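User: Look at the shape:
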Amino acid sequence: MAMAGISLIQKQTQTMVMTPQLQHAIKLLQMNHVELTEEIMNEMMTNPILELTPPANSQEGEAENSLDDPDYDQTPPAKAGNGDGAEFADQVGTTEEKIREDIDWENYLEEYSSAPSTTLAMGSHETPEETPGFETYTAAKTSLSELLISQWTFAAKDKADYARGEIVIGNLNENGYLAATIHELADQAKCRSREMLQTLSRVQELDPAGIAARDLRECLLLQLERLGLQGSLAHDITKSHLALVEKKDLQGLRKALETQKKRAVTKEEVMAALGTLKNLDPSPGLAYSTTDPVYVTPDVYITKVGDEYAIKLNEDGMPRLRFSSAYRHLLQDKNSTPETKKYLSEKLKGATFLIKSIHQRQKTIYRVTECIFKFQRDFLDLGVEYLKPLVLRDVAEELGFHESTISRVTTNKYVDTPRGIFELKYFFDSPITRFVGDSLSSESVKNRIKQIINSEDPQKPLSDQKIVEILRGANIKIARRTVAKYREILHLGSSSERKTMG
């Protein structure tokens, strides 16, 4: 049998090439409002053609658009893609093709020569340079270590004692607890464990009370002793019976205290002691955390206007961009060298593509948001309980996009609605079947579980099985394990954990 020979075969195939410009456009689509603003500022640092312009007086193009306004989008929907950015390529591809052409950029700039402040990007109320940030007017927060060191400077007996205390303070976690053993601290200080214990005891006398404790019990005891409550029921409970408090075993706690005190202990005495413990701080160092809070900035606003809802993209703080008049004149100058003109032409191409990509991003976010709330109109009118099951595919098919594009648009982007601020992903939810009728969204079922638990008797909390029976009575078909999973997602404890002592 003859072996097959080597041959060349010519085959024609179609593939999509992700150019750097297209990759950047897709990257912009994934960004939220804050990230996009930072990206624009970074682009300005590397592209001399771009510069900021003061806010224009005209509000043209910023009018709110109704959910039911058919004239908002005058362009046909993009074609469905293959999941690798194809449909976004359809949207910005024509821009990229124009940029690739051999354009006379000198003539292209002439239309802007008579209007040096022409705005090419979405407007904003102010530029970053005009108004100082909020942090300019706020005092720097004192950290826990700074607070303790300032006290220890006066409390230390000598240099060696100061050094040991500094090591103790340096080994506290953000909650104010000691995160190392005495032996480890002694090794660091090159001293005996006995000396380190003495230093630790004196560091624990600093403010805030309960600092430098090795566990919760010691933290609470330090605070009780600072209050002069040694020998009290609260002190006895903390020292010997915290396990019973954790189990919420009031009867067992009373018996244990009566045995210890060798006298009768009333329920009122125990409840008063527990009330004292509730007023203590289990994390005394947390109040001095220097971690800045993370604030959510909505990308889209939805407001009710009459009987309809209007969508408005968040443009606050977004830089207004224009072409630099100085570099524009330099590109038009006949005395400029070919190298200069080539450099500026490349930068102009990048600036033009960036601006058009930003506009396309804004338009895509608007269309996706509009489509989502056409499905979820009942949520806006009636609340979370009326949230409908929705998947990415539903919106993708409606708009002619690929599911991956919808995922990029809705991830890490927030919408401010009359019902509160939500991530756009929140409105995509798996269905929970009913015995009769249409399915419910899992989010609406979670909300019902939360309402049921909030309305239960805290001394007789409902079991997961009982919650299942209540939901089935409301025509919701659900398993006990699903209730347990949703309860954990909602950070709600089990029935034994929710039970209150009283």
Summary: The chain is about 50% helix and 5% strand.
